């Protein structure tokens, strides 16, 4: 597994670079415009682009050698980050202070394009786990991949806040360009022994929608698993749109960045647990139990305006997230033929991520126009304000609590369905 460990190291560099830019962009968009609409639009735009591109990315991964795909994606990222660096130094800071500014959105789109190219790693690396790792070690390998993602979060959430606060976006993008160059040079040194690419469809250069759907339908319960994750992402769009705005209403950007660095250790702990112990004999059942805990936490972690309460809830959330990702990856690696895994992973990414943009696009304006007034001067402040609190941040907090309630109810319903029982049996080889 030596080559797999090298690949993990390269994925770590790429994840650090992408998350570093993503965190900084989200912080910067809110601090520049002081509007939750900006953060919801940034999150929504990213997820729309990721959802549209993942299906195509999956087809590219299946039809080409994975190393060449990863190199190509990094080169495109390098170009887009370099253009963004030039743009932010051409325009004055005032050009980025309004949500309606064309310069602001040109800059955001360039950066999001560079970050989205990193999605090739999220699709290609799980397919390479099938090539480089024995079957009985794949769940643990997926846990290692989750640990890598956690380490990148821990490093970049701290670094993004500090670098943005003291050096601005110029320093953020300069560092991102250097890291992208390093990732390209490092990947060139990794030998990835892939067998000849097998095309099971008549037109290998086209996106095989029909064949991918047939492959998924052939596995009882796999569609159900993908759509359950899709629903989770639908509700999870709330967190992408509002979490930074809520956190920054409680603490400074430097403190928020450092706090996320500490909280991201939870992602590492979750990934390390999977890497050591695996997912258990019945990962599908455990998946629902984890979701029940996760949504219960989401109900209560903003119940009062406390950074400690928020931090504890977010830490539990981060610990549990790697289990959800690793379960889906391990099931696909086991039951889907390798020559179609890229398209299946791409399909899953596209469908799952298509849900969050709708929430992210809608929830920012809804929160700004309804929930914030509702909990500031409206009837919500009169009804529950005496114990829940009042003000703009409590309007955001109410959205989190309601989202957790919805997620918990749907999880309880889904875990009793026949489709998930069949999927658990298929995974166990029954």
Order of helices and strands: HHHHHHHHHHHHHHHH
Intertermini distance = 29 Å
Count the DSSP helices.
16
CATH architecture: Up-down Bundle
Low-confidence stretches: none
What Rg, in angstroms, do the CA atoms define?
21 Å
Reading off the top of the CATH hierarchy, the class is best stated as: Mainly Alpha
CATH superfamily: MFS general substrate transporter like domains
Beta-strand fraction estimate: under 5%
Mean pLDDT: 81
Can you characterise this structure?
With 430 residues, this protein is mainly alpha-helical. It has one domain: Up-down Bundle (Growth Hormone, Chain: A). The protein contains 16 helices and no strands. The protein starts with a helix and ends with a helix. The mean pLDDT is 81.
């Amino acid at each position: 597994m030596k080559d797999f460990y090298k690949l993990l190291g390269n994925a770590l560099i790429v994840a650090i670079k992408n998350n570093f830019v993503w965190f900084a962009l989200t912080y910067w968009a809110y601090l520049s415009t002081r509007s939750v609409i900006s953060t919801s639009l940034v999150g929504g735009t990213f997820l729309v682009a990721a959802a549209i591109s993942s299906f195509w990315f999956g087809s590219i991964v299946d039809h080409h050698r994975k190393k060449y795909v990863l190199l190509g994606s990094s080169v495109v990222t390098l170009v887009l980050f370099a253009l963004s660096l030039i743009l932010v130094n051409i325009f004055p800071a005032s050009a980025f202070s309004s949500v309606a500014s064309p310069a602001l959105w040109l800059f955001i789109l360039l950066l999001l394009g560079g970050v989205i190219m990193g999605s090739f790693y999220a699709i290609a690396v799980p397919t390479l786990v099938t090539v480089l790792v024995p079957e009985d070690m794949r769940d643990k390998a997926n846990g290692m991949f989750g640990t890598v993602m956690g380490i990148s979060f821990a490093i970049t959430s701290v670094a993004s806040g500090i670098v943005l606060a003291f050096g601005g976006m110029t320093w953020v993008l300069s560092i991102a360009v250097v890291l992208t160059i390093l990732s390209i040079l490092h990947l060139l040194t990794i030998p990835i022994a892939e067998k000849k690419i097998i095309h099971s469809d008549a037109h290998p250069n086209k996106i095989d929608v029909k064949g991918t759907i047939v492959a998924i339908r052939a596995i009882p319960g796999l569609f159900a698993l993908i759509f359950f994750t899709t629903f989770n992402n639908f509700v999870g769009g709330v967190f992408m749109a509002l979490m930074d705005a809520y956190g920054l209403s409680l603490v400074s950007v430097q403190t928020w960045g450092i706090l996320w660095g500490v909280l991201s250790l939870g992602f590492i702990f979750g990934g390390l647990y999977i890497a050591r112990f695996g997912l258990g004999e019945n990962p599908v059942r455990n998946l629902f139990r984890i979701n029940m805990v996760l949504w219960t936490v989401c109900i209560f972690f903003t119940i009062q305006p406390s950074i400690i309460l928020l931090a504890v809830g977010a830490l539990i959330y981060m610990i549990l997230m790697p289990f959800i990702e690793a379960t889906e990856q391990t099931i696909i690696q086991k039951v889907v033929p390798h020559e179609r895994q890229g398209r299946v992973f791409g399909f899953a990414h596209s469908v799952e991520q298509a849900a969050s943009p709708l929430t992210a696009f809608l929830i920012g304006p809804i929160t700004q126009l309804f929930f914030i007034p509702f909990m500031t001067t409206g009837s919500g402040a009169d009804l529950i304000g005496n114990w829940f609190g009042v003000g703009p941040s409590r309007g955001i907090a109410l959205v989190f609590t309601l989202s957790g309630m919805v997620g918990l109810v749907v999880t309880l319903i889904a875990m009793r369905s026949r489709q998930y029982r069949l999927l658990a049996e298929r995974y166990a080889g029954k």
